[in-house]
Amino acid sequence: MAASVLNRRASQMWCLLKGIWPLYAPLPVSTCCNLIQVANYNSRPLRLNIKDAYIPDWNSERTPEWQKTDKFERKLYGRLGSASGVDPTRLWPSPEQLSEMVAEERGWYPSLQETQKNIAVKERELAKKRQAREKLIAANMAKMPMMVAEWRREARELKQKQREEKVRRERLLAEARERFGYALDPRSPKFQEMVKEIEKEEKKKRKLLKRRKKEEESRSETPAQGPAT
Q: In 42-111, where does DSSP find H-type helix?
């Protein structure tokens, strides 16, 4: 009976191994498709000492330079204390460094008296700026009626100039139509030449009128000076 039980267990173990073995069998090499190879590899564990704290060897060349600085030693001593092997007397700043730290602290963190003095100076400056702005506003408000009148005068002159320009343009177009018998484009060379000729004629007329006015003034002054002589 014991033998039959042993045989039954052996047959069950053989069937179990027979079902698992194809999973680990090597893949056949096929010329029609790419070969996929699966490597069952476990990397070697790193031998790191995670029980004790890391203390660098300052005399070793393999130690990075940033681990040899005073800043790193201060952090190491603050984390581990005397177990770090750092001499705490070397961690204190030198007199030069201490004076620089004091000067920097005074620049960034002034005393209460200096803070109050700076606040008073800023308030006086703001008061002066506010007074100057109020004076400027008052002066501009006093000039406001004159500035409005000036603006209205300039607006009237601009409108008058635009009206005169429009009348002159219409007159020139009418004269060009009368001279050439058809309407001309103001941008055409003929129209521009005609405008230049008309401007020359008007300039001559103005000179002639000015000369006649001077002659009339001189004639009116001559009889008045005659009886006095």
A: 70-80, 95-108
